[in-house]
Automatic annotation (TrEMBL):
This protein's UniProt keywords: Mitochondrion, Transit peptide
Protein name (record): LYR motif-containing protein 2
Pfam families: Complex1_LYR
Subcellular location(s) per record: Mitochondrion
Annotated Complex 1 LYR protein domain residues: 33-88
Similarity field: Belongs to the complex I LYR family.
Top-rank taxon: Eukaryota
Chief location of this protein within or outside the cell: mitochondrion
Source organism of the structure: Linnemannia gamsii
A GO CC term assigned to this protein in UniProt: mitochondrion
InterPro entries found in the cross-reference section: Complex1_LYR_dom, Complex1_LYR_LYRM2
Function: Involved in efficient integration of the N-module into mitochondrial respiratory chain complex I.
Length: 109
C-alpha cells in the first residue's frame, strides 16, 4: 500500500512566505509575531530615562528590523524572530541590572 500523497500546500516549496498568490495564514501569523516583538522592544525602550540612550536603542532596533524587511524564507524568518527574542531578553536584563529601567512587570516567554 502506498503512503498518502503529501498535499501541495504542505510541501516545502509551498511553505515559502510569498504574496504572489495572495498571503496565506502562515504569512499573517509570522507578521503578527514580528510586529509583537517590535512593539515589545519599543515599549521596553520607552522606559529608558536618558533620551539619547533611548533614541540610540530605538534606532538600533528599527534598523535591525528594516534590514530584514523583505526576507521571504520562512525558516530564516523564524530564526531571526528567535534571535530577536534572545537579544530582547538580554537587553531587558542589561537595562534592569544597570537600573536604567524598572524590571518588566510581566515578561512574555
Amino acid at each position: 500500500m502506498k503512503p498518502p500523497a503529501v498535499p501541495a500546500s504542505l510541501s516545502r516549496a509551498a511553505r515559502k512566505i510569498s504574496v504572489k498568490d495572495g498571503p496565506n495564514l502562515e504569512y499573517f501569523l509570522t507578521r503578527a509575531r514580528v510586529l509583537s516583538l517590535y512593539r515589545d522592544i519599543q515599549r521596553t525602550l520607552k522606559g529608558i530615562k536618558d533620551p539619547r540612550d533611548r533614541q540610540e536603542l530605538q534606532h538600533w532596533a528599527r534598523s535591525d528590523f528594516e534590514q530584514f524587511r523583505h526576507e521571504t524564507n520562512p525558516d530564516r524568518i523564524k530564526s531571526l524572530i528567535s534571535q530577536g527574542k534572545h537579544q530582547f531578553h538580554a537587553l531587558q536584563t542589561n537595562l534592569t541590572l544597570s537600573s536604567t529601567i524598572a524590571p518588566p512587570k510581566n515578561s512574555k516567554k
